[in-house]
Write a structure and sequence with these properties.
seven-stranded mixed sheet; GNAT family acetyltransferase
């Protein structure tokens, strides 16, 4: 795991684009352009961006940021992605643990995920394993290409 640099953006875009194109985890419309990625990835500070590398190859990434501004900035938010060929190898779990530790070091009191698609079982199971709870359900908030409109979960984990 290492901090992402501007030089990593194109590679991260190509990985993230492949995840978006699956249309099962992120609600972005297709086609998903490099400009779309930069709007997602380059949110205003404070934000911390990381690459997950395997044998020197970027295989995923995540960003960590406050979930909201001002009086809500003590709760973190994060977005993760792992390229399909590298899934089921513990990379997502390593990024999740890394994000939890980073959020603690940055004095966040909790992490909240605002949009976890209910049919994304690998993600849900990982977050439950790492101590997150489903604290809310948004009915039929995601148009899944196979299952139609499915629920989205809000997941939350305290860090103290």
């Amino acid at each position: 795991m290492r901090e992402a640099t501007d030089e990593d953006c194109l590679k991260l875009y190509l990985l993230f684009k492949s995840v978006v194109e699956e249309q099962t985890a992120y609600p972005f419309s297709l086609p998903f352009s490099y400009a779309d990625f930069l709007n997602f990835w380059n949110v205003p500070p404070p934000v911390w961006r990381y690459c997950s590398c395997l044998n020197g190859i970027i295989v995923g990434g995540y960003l960590l940021k406050p979930n909201f501004i001002g009086l809500g900035n003590h709760i973190a938010n994060a977005s993760f992605f792992v390229a399909k060929p590298y899934r089921k190898q513990g990379i997502g779990e390593a990024m999740g643990k890394h994000a939890i530790e980073n959020a603690r070091k940055l004095n966040f009191l909790a992490i909240q995920f605002n949009y976890v698609v209910s049919t994304n079982y690998p993600a849900i199971n990982l977050w439950l394993k790492l101590g997150f709870k489903i604290v809310g359900t948004i009915p039929k908030a995601f148009r899944h290409p196979i299952f139609g409109c499915v629920d989205v979960y809000v997941m939350f984990r305290e860090l103290i």
